[in-house]
């Protein structure tokens, strides 16, 4: 028995290291290209300010829209066939769609490829669900926190690498590199990730309505989904237009691509410093306190962003945002692993991904509309109001 436990421990730890790397590369590739999507689009034609903001928001949000629609289907398939298969599906298609985005000659092509990327996305989500099923409960907070560290590290380095490449070789190169990296992730996941999954016959798969009915704290699960939606909306609201804001603050002078990459990466620096500690902290004091603290601090940090006049002011505040945002989404995932039966992990995490995707749609679109109607900085005030609403919702539910 001890030998079996040791072997299982080695297997789930090996799978964790590979999936950590996969989540890192997925986030690296994503962040390496997205801070420059508006500048890339701007290079494909002549657009006025409203058109550029709208196209940027649409290209950014369309991935999340398609993701929100199909995630429940992939979640059900994950519970039937396993989460490893879903990781392979996501990494393989992402490799192709991002590579071909670099070959686009017009905005429509970018939007279509971004839509397809969303339809087949979900590597990080399924990697999280896989590890939630393989990891002993006493390590759940630490593993969720470390997977968050992988995503954050990729998000941190991606804009820096992308900024250098875009400045040196043009906006297309980051898409080509990302496609190749995702191909490597596909191969490593196929060869080295082990999942102790027993396929469930479709006729024996309990419907989500029955599983949800059996949950002891249904309201908590719903509020966790809403929390994911609102947090994602808040974090993504400025993403499609951040390079345009940086260009405005720099008065259209200097290396906008590189500075945009650095500003986009600043939250990653903050999150990277505390993500691992946050995981341990959730195991020690509970996810509720960590989540509430993160929301309060993030809400406070967003307000002074409205008054920024220079890029260094924006960079410092986004660094502080990273310190607080490290607590939020991993805390939600930890709550879900504790309060949901393992047989439903795939579907519950897919619904959570749908919530995250809806937030990824609403945030960029609202950011584009608000920035066009008012100013880029006005987006930050609306973002703070999202977090305030989220805080009110959380105070209305009971945690374990």
Automatic annotation (TrEMBL):
It is found in: Cell membrane. SUPFAM superfamilies: MFS general substrate transporter. GO terms for molecular function: transmembrane transporter activity. One of its GO terms (cellular component) is plasma membrane. This is Multidrug resistance efflux pump. The chain crosses the membrane at residues 16-41, 53-74, 86-104, 144-169, 175-199, 220-246, 258-278, 290-308, 374-394. Its main location: membrane. Residues 15-400 form the Major facilitator superfamily (MFS) profile domain. Keywords: Cell membrane, Membrane, Transmembrane, Transmembrane helix, Transport. InterPro entries: MFS (IPR011701), MFS_dom (IPR020846), MFS_trans_sf (IPR036259), Tet-R_TetA/multi-R_MdtG-like (IPR001958). It is a multi-pass membrane protein. It comes from the Bacteria. The keyword Glycoprotein does not apply.
